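Lecture 7 notes: from sequence to structure.

We start with a single chain of 168 residues. Read the sequence below before looking at the structure.
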Amino acid sequence: MAYQKYQGYQYETSPRKLQPEFEPKTNPYQKKKSSVKKQNNVKKQVKSQIKPKQKAIIYIAIGFAILFAISYQNSLITESFNKKEELKTNLGSIEKENEQLKINIEKTLNLNNVEQSAKEMLGMQKLSNAQKIYINLPKKDYIESANEEKILEENLNIFEKIMNIFKK
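Now the structure, written as tokens:
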């Protein structure tokens, strides 16, 4: 409160009213704020009551979203595990079938079976002595041995080859 200075003797019996030093200027065109302030206060109270409810709902929604994500991830893991197990069982059955086919091929590839299938399917016959022709080959060996110089030249690098060219 602001006090006014004593201005001398006062004739009335009622005490004088203290006036504030600052009086806010009011706009005559502006609507009254008292009803607006009350509405704002009511809105703030409603908002303050709603906020904890909204926070709880948001937290619950986030919790459900996290649980949903975890359960979805677990379902994907389970699905891929089941695929892996199915592929393992398929691999096992294919390997067994492969081994059985190998055994069957080994059984059928003996000389008697090959000869019999050649006679029956392809109409082949064994050679007679009239169909055989004997050739005499000279005993000279036509294989040449490798020269040591060629082997040495192959092991040389580029610089050594160039040096050998200049030496020659």
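Residues 159 and 165 are 10 Å apart (CA to CA). Keep this in mind for problem set 3.
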